[in-house]
Amino acid sequence: MRTLLKSNGIKMFGLRRIGKSTLRQYAMEQFISAGTPYAFFNGEGLNSLSDFLAGWLGAMPNRKDFLQKTLDVVGKSPAKTVLDALTNGTPFEETTLEAYWQIVAQAIARASKEGTPPILIIDEFSTFMHNLINKHGAEKADRLLASMREWRGAGVRMLLTGSIGMKALSRQHGLNSEHLNDLQPFPVPELTEEQAREFVQQATDPSSWTAGHTDEFLKQSGVFYPCFLVKGLLEVGNKAQPQDFATIFSERVRPHLHADFFNQFDRRFKAYSALGDNRREELLLPALKAVMAVETCRGEELPCAPAFDRIDLMEAMEMLVEDGFVDFTEDADYERHWKAGSRLAKNWWKRSGLA
Question: InterPro entries in the record, alphabetically (predicted)?
Fold first, then answer.
């Protein structure tokens, strides 16, 4: 909440089922409690600029007032037709919006400066961008990203989440990645062992669940994302003993959750083949090998093929971070120390056959 309210907003992209939706839901609960207006919509099934505006404006708590402000800004220009249609919920041609997009976008920015606009929250934003690119081209997506940055400059805070990494999507389609640079990245890491232990203890009955149960449960879980802990607790139930946990996890927990996450890593890595210049094989794969081979890897130890420079390499590493493959810390001398993004990423690497 501190990060969100003391900046232009947050971008939170990463694997499915790691906790992004829980954090988003928490933020919305806090806004409701504090009386802070927000507008939320899911972008997964949307694929056009008009879909975006309809989703946003339709979710606004003060929709009519805001739209009236934009109408006042555009006056009698042709863009009024688009805004009138949005106000009344009537259909209009996408080409009309595209033709007058700049006028509409600037009107929204000017209206946003009057008062405090609702915080804009979009789930599966990167999936929407992918859909928009596929249907209308990268130029439309880049135009929207530029306008969104202008709106943030006018006071519209944003929380954008998604299960597709925007770094790789931008590189693949030539989008201007700087349009999202004013948003703060917010990674969703695994719980620490201490947090996972507390999580399990709070979810179990102390009259029948001992410290020995917790020790064996965490050993068998191995992965400390909340979804793993919840799945494990549901399967273990109230009556199983620690000696039963290994069988339960091997038969009813890992086969399902590991398959889900490993498939996500597979799809992400395969998608890198569309980056061009053989970046996946010559840049991303050698870097992954270097990181996964050790506990931590200093940035200067990362290999860089002769066809690329260190700036290319750092851009590639940012893709791998956003997609959950790797993570890093940075010391006082600004040296980055790279490691696997999670236990899941390490396990995926062992099974991938890429080593």
Answer: P-loop_NTPase
